[in-house]
Design brief:
It is a single chain. The chain is 56% helix and 3% strand. It has a three-stranded antiparallel beta sheet. A hairpin with a 4-residue loop joins β1 and β2. The structure holds carboxymethyl coenzyme *A. Carboxymethyl coenzyme *A binds next to α14. Belongs to the citrate synthase family.
Length: 362
């Protein structure tokens, strides 16, 4: 038995498949590169949830339902105690989500998809002393998130980049938070409880808390010329290079290329600091070369976190909010898995091997 359950198959799913050898991610029968080609958050969310809820989903319907739900959940910001907004963003988000009523599954699911998208920008604004901005029902979820964050209508390239990010991270096999969501769903505790458990799992640094350190690394490297020497020194100190390596992928993480592609139009139109993007290019190239030389038997390539960090920074999110943005995108995966598990109907209840002392003989 492995303590990390590496080799244990714990669910059958129709939702997503991660092929670590081929570097391929499939979501409901569609490969990631197809999904990100002009795909929207609402499109992938409808794909994941269709046939799992009481009603059928499509992109246009979901856009309308989410627009209405964003307005409904915004009132929870106004009703919350000020002390809650002093918490780290993910903790504040979790406290606000915990206040949502757990009703009929369809309504609950729509509220849970809208809530993190409304709560995170409001939390970030309140934390920097600004007033939260109410949602705009005429916008897509991605465009409205950026508008609620900055107070300005985003450009087409910015909205497309956030859509690509949200599509790219919508689901990814049986990762820790998704497994947590399924365990809770199997007890029939309700969708809100599944999402709260998943969010609690996500905030750990071994799961969703990694992209901030990629920016810390770029800050420390500081100039392209310094990349090779800084990275070599970091490896000499026994450190890992942030944004490289993966438990499952033995080749390049396909999500890294999806996000790198989303950055290109922003770079081409001057909406990303070119000094930052040139530094990132230099760090990526130097890291790949040095990792290949130092670890010839272990394929180590870029993972999703490297370009997540660059993309979210370019869109104006502070690094302490990156895990919260991840949660905005991953909630649909958690919900789809929770529904899939609940429809299966079987309680998840594994066993453990007792290795403690036995009672003393009488
Ligand atoms: N930098 C330097 N060496 C590395 C790295 C790295 N980023 N990743 C793995 N290695 C080395 C490691 O030192 C070990 O070498 P040796 O065999 O000589 O001791 C070898 O590769 C295998 O390491 P491992 O710990 O068995 O690999 P793992 O599959 O358990 O680790 C990982 C996966 C993501 C934890 C690791 O690659 C890492 O720490 N990366 C940096 C942090 C990071 O970018 N995290 C985000 C990952 S993507 C998250 C997601 O998909 O949700």
């Amino acid at each position: 038995m492995q303590n990390g359950l590496e080799d244990v198959i714990a669910a059958e799913t129709q939702l997503s498949d991660v092929d670590g050898e081929a570097g391929r991610l499939i979501i409901r029968g569609v490969s990631l590169d197809h999904l990100v080609a002009g795909g929207t958050y609402e499109g992938v969310a409808a794909l994941l949830l269709d046939e799992l809820m009481e009603r059928s989903f499509d992109e246009a319907l979901l856009r309308t339902w989410l627009a209405e739900a964003r307005a409904r959940v915004f009132i929870h910001i106004e009703a919350a105690d000020a002390a809650l907004f002093a918490l780290p963003p993910v903790d504040a988000m979790r406290a606000l989500i915990a206040r949502l009523p757990d009703g009929e599954d369809f309504d609950t699911a729509i509220a849970l998809l809208a809530a993190p998208a409304v709560f995170l920008p409001a939390i970030l604004r309140l934390q920097r002393g600004e007033k939260p901005i109410a949602p705009d029902a005429s916008l897509s979820q991605a465009a409205d998130i950026l508008r609620m964050l900055t107070g300005r209508l985003p450009t087409i390239e910015q909205t497309a980049a956030l859509d690509t990010y949200l599509v790219t991270i919508s689901d990814h096999g049986l990762n820790a938070s998704t497994f947590a969501s399924r365990v809770i769903a199997s007890t029939q505790a309700g969708l809100t409880s599944s999402v709260l458990a998943a969010l609690s799992a996500l905030k750990g640094p071994l799961h969703g808390g990694a992209p901030g350190p990629v920016l810390d690394m770029l800050d420390a490297v500081a100039t392209p010329e310094n990349a090779g020497r800084w990275l070599a020194d970091a490896l000499d100190r026994g450190e890992r290079l942030m944004g490289f390596g993966h438990r499952i992928y033995r080749v390049r993480d396909p999500r890294a290329d999806a996000l790198k592609g989303a950055l290109k139009p922003l770079i081409a139109s001057g909406q990303v600091d070119s000094v930052r993007s040139e530094l990132a290019e230099a760090v990526e190239a130097a890291a790949l070369a040095i990792l290949k030389a130092r670890k010839p038997n272990r394929p180590l390539d870029v993972n999703v976190e490297f370009y997540t960090a660059l993309l979210l920074e370019a869109l104006g999110f502070p690094r302490q909010a990156f895990t919260g943005v991840f949660a905005i995108g991953r909630t649909v995966g958690w919900l789809a898995h929770a529904r899939e598990q609940a429809l299966d109907g079987r309680l998840i209840r594994p066993q453990s091997v007792y290795i403690g002392p036995l009672p003393a003989a009488a």
